[in-house]
Amino acid sequence: MPSHSLVEIARLLGITPPPGAESVVIMGVAPLHEAGAGDLSIFSAEQYRPAFAATAAAAVLVDQSVNTDIDGTTPVLVVKNADSALAQVLTLFAAVPRPPVGVDRTANVADDATLSSEVRIGPNVQIGHRSSIGKGCVLYAGVFIGDDV
Fold first, then answer.
1. Which of 10, 61, 71, 99 is deepest in the core (most CB within 10 A)?
2. pTM of the predicted model, to two decimals?
3. Alpha helix ranges (H) inside the chain
4. Hey, CA dihedral for 52, 53, 55, 58, is it positive or negative?
5. What is the pLDDT of residues 101-135, one digit of tens each?
């Protein structure tokens, strides 16, 4: 699994990293009560305050609606919407396999579509008439490209 610095995560979210973020490495995401060293967690509602106070997470995304009287040594990233911020962060850790070079047998490519070299066309992709797919493009499963694109 990839790892990311807390600075990188803060930049992704468009916020200023907290002091000491340079040395914090995030390797995964876990709930407050299960998080440990290397985990990022989320504090999004008052009901989770006891779990936040006891967490061993490396850092915590904190919803601005509950950001009152936060103290302690755990670095926090205060965000407008912690659930939305978590969704953004999870994209850093998602491992989506790339289709191999070529066209998947289940793809539907119009006869007059143009495919450049080294394209990767995944399962169930639809490519319409007179459309052109550039060199090295990757189209993941289920992508639809209409006519004349």
1. 61
2. 0.65
3. 6-13, 49-54, 82-93
4. positive
5. 999 999 999 999 999 999 999 999 999 999 999 99
